[in-house]
Amino acid sequence: MATHRKPKLAVWKFASCDGCQLTLLDCEDELLAVAGAIDIANFPEASRAVVKGPYDVSLVEGSITTAHDAERIHQIRRDSKILVTIGACATAGGIQALRNFTDVKSYIPVVYAKPDYIETLNKSTPIADHVAVDFELRGCPISKKQLIEAIIALLAGRKPRLPNYSVCMECKRRDTTCLAVAEGLPCMGPVTQAGCGAICPSYHRGCFGCFGPKESSNAESLSHWWKSHGMESREIVRWFRSFNAYADAFRKESEAHE
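Now predict its structure.
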C-alpha cells in the first residue's frame, strides 16, 4: 500500500541575525504539532540532517548581500514549490540596507582589519528583488502566530489569514492610549502593518515600524504631522530608516527629507 508523503519544509538563511529562525524554534508546542504533519527537510539552525529537494515550502530569512547569495537564491527558488520570505531582512533588506544610502566601500576598511578579504555587494536587497516570492511574513522578528498560520494555510492550499491594518488598530484592541495624540510622542504606528500586538506603545514607547509599511500607508501625512509638531527633517529621516529602511514607502519618505 502506498504511503502518504509528508510535505517537505526547508528553512534557509542569508544575511540576517537568525532571529526569525529562532521564532520558529520558539513555537514549542505548536512546532511539535506542525512537525508531525510535515517533514522538516532542511533547517541548519535546528538540525544537521539535510534532505534533498524539491521542497513543498521554503522559508527564507535574510537579505542578499553577496554575489554568491544572489546565485544561491535562484537555486532555492528552483527547488521550492512555494517560497515564503520571513522577516524584515528578507522582505525589505533589513537594518543592513542602511548601506544602500551611502558608499559601503568607504566603511569596509574602517570595520575590518583586512578589507581585501571582504566581498560584498553595494546594496542589501530583499529576496523579491531576485526571484519570485509567493508570500511575505513581515516583522523584526516575525510573529510566531503568523508563522504557524502561514505554514498551515499554505500546506492546506488556502490563503493565510493575516492582518493588513495598522498597529493603531492593535493599540485600540489593547485599550492603549494613543501616545501620538495624547502626549505628542513620535510613533510609526499609523503607517506600520500590524503583527506585533502593539508591544512598544503598551510600554509607553512609540512604534518603531518593525513590521514595515502597511498597505497604502500614508507616510507623507505622518511626516507632515511630525513637522507641524516641531520635528526636524533629519529626525524624520532617522525614524524611517530603521528595520525596514529600504521598504519602498519608508525609503521614499526618508529620501524626501534628506
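The beta strands are 8-13, 39-42, 55-61, 80-86, 135-137.
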